[in-house]
Design a protein that fits this description.
about 20% strand, 4 strands, about 100 residues, single chain, MSMEG_0570 family nitrogen starvation response protein, alpha+beta, globular, CHP04042_MSMEG0570
Length: about 100
């Protein structure tokens, strides 16, 4: 899945996760303090990478690259909020 965010200065970035587990940690339209966003996204990307390891026997380097990019980018923002713009695909609709 891909998710896009807006940083405190208005810059936008897009990131990849091999798992929909991102929806357990972030919400489209959600606003998170920079430190909170880094913690949530890092934990989610680590969990996604472990799901790949469990299924295929190796970690997902793309998930780790996304995590590292988020950490590097966040270092430029000592404060402010990160807004989640998109999460694609969305979670499947629940049957009623």
């Amino acid at each position: 899945m891909h998710f896009a965010v807006r940083w405190p200065d208005g810059a936008e970035s897009s990131h990849y996760s091999p798992s929909l587990v991102m929806h357990d940690y972030l919400s489209t339209g959600g606003r998170y303090g920079v430190v909170d966003f880094v913690a949530r996204s890092s934990e989610a990307l680590d969990a996604a990478g472990e799901r790949v390891r469990a299924a295929y026997g190796f970690a997902c380097t793309s998930a780790m690259a996304s995590r590292d990019e988020i950490v590097r980018t966040a270092a430029a923002y000592p404060e402010g909020e990160v807004t989640v713009l998109r999460m694609e695909p969305p979670l499947p609709a629940r049957a009623s």
